[in-house]
Design a protein that fits this description.
single chain; alpha+beta; two-stranded antiparallel sheet; 14 helices
Length: 471
Amino acid sequence: MERLGYLPERPSPYNPDGLPIGFVATRDPTTKQQWFGLTCAACHTGQIKYQGHIARVDGGPTLADFNGFLDEVLAALQATVKDDVKFQRFAQRVLDSKTGDTEVNRLRTSLNSQIAFLSDRIRLNHPPYPAGHGRVDAFGNIFNEVFVRDLNIPENKVPPSAPVSYPFLWDTPQHDVVQWNGAAPNAGIGPLLRNIGEVLGVFGNVTVDHRPSLVRGLKSAINVRNLSKLEGWLHDLWSPQWPEQILPQIDSAQAARGKVHYDRYCVSCHAPIKRNDPRRRVNAVMTRVAVLGTDPTMAQNAAQRITKTGVLEGTREMIIVGNHLGPVEPGTKVGPVVAAGVALGQPLQVLQAIKAGMQRYHRARKAQPFDPLSYKARSLNGIWATAPYLHNGSVPNLWQLLQPVSGRDKVFYVGSYEFDPKHVGSLSTAETNGFRFDTQLPGNSNAGHEYGTHELTDEQRWELIEYLKTL
């Protein structure tokens, strides 16, 4: 698990099985079947290591290899079912003393079924090039799972070709829009739809066999109540501060000089916010890809994805408001319909709140004034703990981000949590089993975001980095 970038944890009252952070065992409320899966924490918990010390970063981006993990789980399952000795050992542990022929055969059938499911999922979401550590094409996975598997329309498949870094979660509820391309308004039911979509993109299931309506939602095993609790906890998740008890102390004089450069080159897009102000708000600055110059693939894929709507044809955009869906629609319209249908499939007492939230969300979407081929300027609180940089993780550290594109590495490695406090990034190499990141592959460009890079001297870059450590 460490090699794959996930974070092992010892057993505790809250984690009796000693599973890695974000891995849980849960029970399907309808079938009573016990399942093993992931929570938000698996992808949104970071870590830094420095001179033998370890610090966890709650809400930070993981450096895990999600696609590699699925590949290796599948290989392990296949090896288990093919090797009789291995399978018998597996059956004894799973079935305990109930190892009669009937139980063992039932287990083998169940295991083969799960292998088939996971094989199909991997084939459906196989990227043209490996995403590696710390990245996944979340939109591509969600769209394929919903538009192909849940709508049962195979021709809706599109290879997920735009892996992006896992975003940090602090200050998320305080944003007006979220996602790298700002596609998800945070108004009304927006946060719940976002979280439902994330679950559907991993292993959540939904049955889309009719048009959802206010009185009849979609059947799903997703626990919307728990998703609401998780979102509520984010309101109290503050950005991490540079841990001077572990890392070298910040040079306050140098940081003060760096603030001058920040105010000149950065503040117009990355306005500072008070990290612990409960009333803080983040109004994202959206910049067109053509101006920003960074890799356009993620924004293009999201904006240009269209899908056959199947059974959803004729449904309103937000089920109770908006235009009716035609036979073919943009994916950004259809995805929220399915997520809203899941929300409406919950107990009746929440329907009024959901209805009001849908209306606010619909108004917010209609009011979006920016070009969809844009990226969001992230707030920079805790930026020191979120390498690699740019939306697609194509720049390994802050020092290189402040260089012109010509001065940035074309190839580097990612995957190690060993921290580089000088350049502010991770220390990954081929020897540490790092993933070889080639910026010349499609979707991996490290171009763009050259604000101030041609004007700053090296001394001024170090000063600016020192200030960024204080945020």
